[in-house]
Design brief:
The protein is an alpha+beta fold. The protein has 2 domains: 5-167, Sandwich (Jelly Rolls); 178-286, Homeodomain-like (Arc Repressor Mutant, subunit A), CATH 1.10.10.60. 46% of the residues lie in helices and 19% in strands. The protein is built from 11 helices and 10 strands. The strands form 2 sheets. The chain has a 6-stranded antiparallel beta sheet with strand order 1-2-9-4-7-10. It has a 4-stranded antiparallel beta sheet with strand order 3-8-5-6, with no helix packed on it. α2 (127-141) runs antiparallel to α3, α3 crosses α6 (216-227) and α8 (254-260) packs across α9.
Length: 302
């Protein structure tokens, strides 16, 4: 972040109804606070390099690579840079309902102050959360096109940041009642049915959540807890197992197969297939022809 507009460069990385993700580059010189700024939306900034100081009234936070820094919409603040060189950040702008759902896990009263969800200026990140943020950014910079997975992983990141924030205050999530637990199980079951019946579609996480009458933030957490696997990975496995069936049945055009299964590209499908099964789909397909297929058939008969 920075206090002088012309020193900022913002590069959009991802946009959905759940989250917007930007890289922000600042090359300010060392000096005192710049002009007053106001955030256009609630956001969380992850500093990748450099350092700046955010000041709100008499409170301030030193923002470096160990911190996630919070910004409330319309909040007035000033920024200074204690050393020349500026900073590089990745900023996540979550939809207001998504953010309030996440905060409500720890602080139900947050919905009474929607314009000021963050009461703190920042939080210290643990190693896992820092790695999650960097890995997600690296995937986006590499052109990773699976919006469903980006949404889900962004909400995992949000959950980790909020968990760290409230844990540092000695507070924990609200305990789930038995009736609520049954509702959660029904949400997970309904989500499994929806994903299984529509795994070839380019679904959005927001669409899935609305279909089962749940918020995206809660659905990501509940699905993982009830099934033992992240929702984006569950969907990806359904698609990959469907691809095995198509390949065994003689599906030959891998680009069409990738599109039919909801992947953004042939390369995205190939990478996912290789990670899951250890070989690219082209090698798997070749292994099911000619003598190799006859050999496999004999082994099955034996």
């Amino acid at each position: 972040m920075a206090g002088v507009a012309e020193e900022l460069r913002r590069q959009p990385l991802f946009r959905s109804s759940t989250v917007a993700i930007d890289d922000v580059r600042c090359r300010a010189r060392a000096g005192g606070c710049g002009a007053e700024e106001r955030s256009t939306a609630h956001s969380i900034a992850f500093v990748r390099s450099g350092v700046f100081v955010k000041q709100v009234g008499s409170r301030q936070v030193v923002a470096d690579a160990n911190q996630a820094v919070f910004f409330n919409r319309h909040e007035a603040y000033r920024v200074s840079h204690p050393v020349t060189g500026g900073d590089d950040c990745t900023t996540f702008w979550f939809a207001p309902d998504v953010l309030l759902s996440g905060l409500g896990v720890y602080e139900p009263a947050v919905r009474e102050r929607p314009d000021k969800p963050f009461l703190r200026s920042g939080v210290l990140l643990d190693a896992r959360t820092a790695l999650l943020q960097r890995t997600l950014r690296r995937c986006l910079r590499a052109g990773w096109g699976d919006g469903f997975a980006v949404d889900a992983r962004s909400l995992d990141l949000l959950a980790a940041v909020l968990r760290a924030t409230f844990r540092s205050q000695g507070r924990h999530s609200v305990r789930v009642k038995p009736e609520t637990a049954r509702v959660h199980r029904r949400w997970a079951d309904a989500t499994q049915v929806l994903l299984a019946s529509r795994c070839g579609e380019r679904l959005s996480l927001d669409e899935v959540a609305r279909s089962v009458h749940c918020s995206p933030f809660h659905l990501v957490r509940i699905f993982r807890r009830e099934t033992g696997i992240p929702i984006h990975r569950y969907l990806n496995r359904l698609r990959l197992r469907a691809s095995l069936e198509r390949l065994v049945d003689g599906g030959s055009d891998l680009t069409n197969l990738a599109m039919d299964l909801g992947y953004a590209s042939h390369s995205h499908f190939t990478d996912a297939f290789r990670r899951e099964f250890g070989v690219p789909p082209s090698d798997f397909r070749r292994g099911l022809t000619g003598g190799r297929l006859r050999e496999m058939s004999k082994n099955l008969e034996a």
